[in-house]
Amino acid sequence: MKRILVVDDQQDIRELVRMTLEIDGHEVHEADNGQAALKLAGQLGPDLMLLDVMMPGGIDGLEVCRRIKQQASAGTPAHMKVVMLSALGMKADQRNGLAAGADGYLTKPFSPRELLAVVARMV
């Protein structure tokens, strides 16, 4: 069982992801904005963060990813993987996610099977 933090401002997306991952036996935590994501990542030390790119509140997913990867030595586990979950599916968007430090990129909409395959590769 892996600890996974799901970060998305849309509750229905978080619910779908949580239910899919819990059925697969994972421990799932949720955040609805970038600030909460950073706080929970430091507290929980998840194995994987599934992170939306576009979120309200001043800190988008790309910035969360940058901070997580920069803070790996300051309390956030270095082993934590980050997968961007985004409706932004252009190659440039994917490059931006990877440039921010993401370990993977999954474009919305995605199927539960796609999600489970990405999670299996990451953890």
TrEMBL record:
Keywords: DNA-binding, Phosphoprotein, Transcription, Transcription regulation, Two-component regulatory system. PROSITE patterns: RESPONSE_REGULATORY. Residues 3-123 form the Response regulatory domain. SMART domains: REC. The modification 4-aspartylphosphate is found at residue 52. Signal peptide: none annotated. This is Response regulator. It comes from Pseudaquabacterium inlustre.
